[in-house]
Write a structure and sequence with these properties.
- By secondary structure, this protein is mainly α.
- The chain has 2 domains: 51 residues, Homeodomain-like (Arc Repressor Mutant, subunit A); 153 residues, Tetracycline Repressor, domain 2 (Orthogonal Bundle), CATH 1.10.357.
- The chain contains 9 helices and 5 strands; from the N terminus they run ββααααααβββααα.
- The strands form 2 sheets. Strands 3-4-5 form a 3-stranded antiparallel sheet.
């Protein structure tokens, strides 16, 4: 998997509901409202979002906007009209995929009685969806420095190191000491629910005690290889995930 640093802009062209539209005044000096997109503009937006998800999933967030435009079969100007900077597009995709993973984890937690079944279900559905490849890079990297610290108990190292800045903004600390802002509520919700899956499986004695949330996120980010043939990709993903799941399971002492 190829992931690259991306500056996470604090500005966004998104409306509160997640749609992108043109801000228009109501003529009375009050807050602008978002006008609905025309049918063709909405179609172009859907093409751009689908293309961005595919391109970033295959090449990482370092892929240029021109690649997204080419995959969407629109001009690069069309992409920039919807997303004024690459940062805005990256944030949109990353937040959507973080939300997707959170819902998959909640479904597994709520519908599976056995802890190991819940964790393995989450891993399988997440790998199949490809959402793990589109997590914010900082969420994946931050665990490396933290988990590698000496003398840190496994239960204290299960979530990425984080700190809150002014205004309640959550910033994840990367392995090189740099920080980047992410969606506070989205990242926190994902880490919390995956943490519950990990805790349950560990307490049941079915998960290795040294496995952290960071490890689980890395599994779903890397267990879906990008191959040109869909059938080969599905088979390779299933095989790789089976091997990784075996590596995560606790083994009774001899």
């Amino acid at each position: 998997m190829h992931t690259h640093n991306s500056h996470w802009s604090s500005t966004s062209a998104l409306s509160p509901g997640g749609a992108v539209g043109a801000a228009v005044s109501d003529g009375r000096g009050e807050s602008p409202r978002t006008a609905p997109l025309r049918v063709d503009a909405q179609r172009n937006l859907e093409h751009v979002l689908r293309a961005a998800r595919e391109v970033f999933g295959e090449l990482g967030y370092g892929a240029p906007m021109e690649d997204v435009a080419r995959r969407a079969r629109v001009g690069v100007g069309t992409v920039y009209r919807r997303f004024p900077s690459k940062d805005v597009l990256v944030r949109r995709i990353a937040e959507e995929e973080t939300s997707r993973l959170t819902e998959q984890a909640r479904a597994a937690l709520g519908q599976e009685d056995e802890p190991w079944s819940a964790l393995s279900r989450f891993l399988r559905t997440s790998v199949a969806s490809g959402a793990g490849r589109l997590l914010p890079p900082q969420v994946l990297r931050v665990g490396v420095a933290e988990d590698g610290g000496e003398g840190v108990p496994a239960d204290e190292a299960r979530v990425p190191q984080q700190r809150t800045q002014s205004g309640g903004e959550l910033r994840l600390v990367a392995g090189d000491g740099t920080t980047a802002a992410v969606d506070d509520s989205g990242a926190a919700a994902l880490l919390e629910v995956v943490g519950l899956l990990v805790d349950r499986a560990r307490e049941a004695g079915e998960l290795r005690t040294d496995v952290s949330v960071s490890d689980v996120l890395l599994v779903i980010a890397t267990a879906a290889p990008s191959l040109p043939d869909p059938a080969q990709q599905a088979a390779a993903s299933a095989r790789l995930l089976d091997i990784l799941l075996e590596g995560l399971r606790s083994r009774p002492s001899a």
